[in-house]
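Task: sequence design from structure.
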């Protein structure tokens, strides 16, 4: 991997950058501009020689300890490496906004195209958020790959699932519903995943909006009896 002389390589965080509110808050809190990038620190490729030479670890720890950042060490990392990191392809850190194809990601070509490509070719699935794969029985499309790979490790005989009592009452049915909806959205939006398929941007924009309305209509028909 060519890190282009940068001390860090990471995946842009579409969960933050595709959200107008969250992205504006990051710009305010970290002093970023609208043209900057913000990465998710779940997967990092580091030049350890540079890290030691420039004491990056100490600088990150100091920022995290002396500021009340919303995303703690991740914000501190982004501040220390502001405009000094190399973006990795999205497939190397697929977080829920990409995996579940949030509408805020789908409705903007800048995010939609790489998100659809990443979801179709996941290299690392990052279970960020409240639903962890080891806390539930095996379910196809949710944690089946996790269990398949677990069987190939030294922990193959571990007692599973390992539920976190703090998450009592969080139904897996809700997660499975959103996964099914994401699969439906992927099929719906895939024809628009490649640049240039529709030359008229106005027509393209209107069709995407119509798809969004269809999605919301479809979602409203489902019974969320999913608690």
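Answer:
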């Amino acid at each position: 991997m060519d890190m282009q002389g940068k001390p860090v390589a990471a995946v842009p965080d579409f969960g933050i950058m595709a959200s107008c509110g969250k992205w504006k808050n990051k710009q305010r809190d970290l002093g970023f501009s609208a043209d900057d990038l913000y990465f998710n620190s779940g997967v990092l490729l580091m030049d350890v020689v540079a890290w030691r030479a420039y004491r990056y670890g100490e600088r990150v720890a100091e920022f995290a300890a002396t500021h009340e950042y919303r995303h703690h060490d991740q914000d501190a990392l982004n501040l220390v490496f502001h405009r000094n990191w190399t973006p990795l392809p999205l497939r190397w850190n697929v977080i829920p906004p990409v995996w579940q194809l949030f509408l805020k990601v789908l409705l903007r070509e800048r995010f939609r195209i790489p998100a659809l490509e990443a979801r179709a070719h996941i290299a690392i699935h990052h279970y960020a958020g409240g639903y962890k794969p080891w806390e539930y029985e095996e379910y196809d499309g949710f944690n089946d790959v996790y269990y398949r790979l677990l069987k190939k490790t030294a922990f193959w005989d571990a007692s599973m699932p390992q539920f976190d009592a703090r998450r009592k009452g969080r139904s897996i049915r809700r997660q499975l519903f959103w996964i099914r909806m994401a699969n439906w959205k992927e099929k719906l939006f895939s024809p628009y995943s490649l640049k240039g398929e529709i030359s008229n941007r106005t027509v393209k924009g209107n069709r995407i909006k119509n798809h969004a309305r269809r999605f919301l209509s479809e979602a409203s028909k489902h019974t969320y009896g999913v608690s």
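The CA atoms of residues 96 and 222 lie 21 Å apart.
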